Amino acid sequence: MVQVCLNGRRGGADGASVPLSPEALAEAAALAVTAGATGIHVHPRTPCGQDSLSPRVVAATVEAIRARVAVPVGVTTGAWAEPDPAARLMGVPPRERVRAWGRVRGWRAPLPDHASVNWHEEGAEELAARLIALGVRVEAGIWSGTDAAARFTASPLGPKVLRVLAEVTDPDPDTAPESARRLLADLGRAHGRPVLLHGEEGGAWPVLRLAGRLGLATRIGLEDTLLLPDGGPAASNAQLVTEGLLQYGSAAQGRDSSNG
């Protein structure tokens, strides 16, 4: 499995190739799937470009992408995605809007197939439980450099998640693979759930190749890196997926040769 992460928290300042609107995200998703991506991870955006968990914003993004692709579509639930200052001031959990997903007035609003929940963030377990109750499967985001692995391995919800996103936050290409191995060791068997291993920035390509050598699912896209393996700028998510599949395949062949 190679998932494409279309935009993340990047914006217009990161280049015109970063898709933001539902229509641009749908077009980018379609091209990435044609290039070989087997899943979508997206950050829904408001018209002014902010990450949002608004039921209407999430539904519009999911609907637009689903009209173009037939692969699973997942969204973020990161704590940064709730911009409502009133919610913060009143002490309301910042991701309460998730409760209303699928209930947009006058519209049979679609739900995403899955949503990522960062296990180191406050309220992660409660959020994951709500998503599961809604019928939205959960990707457990386990970031290196946090206590998320320990929290997740002790969580009773662990066996219920769709998969684990082992997210290597080390951006150094020289040290990211070792950071990834430590994270995987901390996760252990991860409740027997499938693991998707990925890196970011300078660590994106070395960690993707490690995933290939280990036979793990991975992801690539403009959320994780703006650059190709040779250091040149990526023109699109589709180009990153194409190169990602080549890199992953070469690494997997190396694993098979060593096993043979």
- Indicate the overall shape: globular
Fraction in beta strands: 5-15%
CATH topology call: TIM Barrel
Helix content estimate: 25-40%
Number of strands: 8
- What is the CATH superfamily classification? Aldolase class I
Major sheet strand order: 7-6-5-4-3-2-1-8
Distance between the termini: 23 Å
Per-chain topology:
Blueprint: E1 2-5, H1 22-35, E2 39-42, H2 55-66, E3 73-76, H3 85-89, E4 114-118, H4 124-134, E5 137-143, H5 148-153, E6 163-167, H6 176-187, E7 195-198, H7 204-214, E8 218-220, H8 237-259
Parallel strand pairs: 1-2, 1-8, 2-3, 3-4, 4-5, 5-6, 6-7
Helix pairs in contact: 1-2, 1-8, 7-8
How would you concisely characterize the structure shown here?
The protein has eight helices and eight strands.
Give the tags.
alpha/beta; 260 residues; 8 strands
Molecular structure report:
- The protein has an eight-stranded parallel β-sheet with strand order 7-6-5-4-3-2-1-8.
- Helix 1 packs parallel to helix 2 (55-66) and helix 7 packs across helix 8 (237-259).
- The protein contains eight helices and eight strands.
- The longest helix has 23 residues, at 237-259.
- The protein has one domain: TIM Barrel (Alpha-Beta Barrel), CATH 3.20.20.
- Helices cover 36% and strands 14% of the residues.
- By secondary structure, the protein is α/β, with parallel strands linked by helices.
- Helix 1 (22-35) links the parallel strand 1 (2-5) and strand 2.
- The two termini are 23 Å apart.
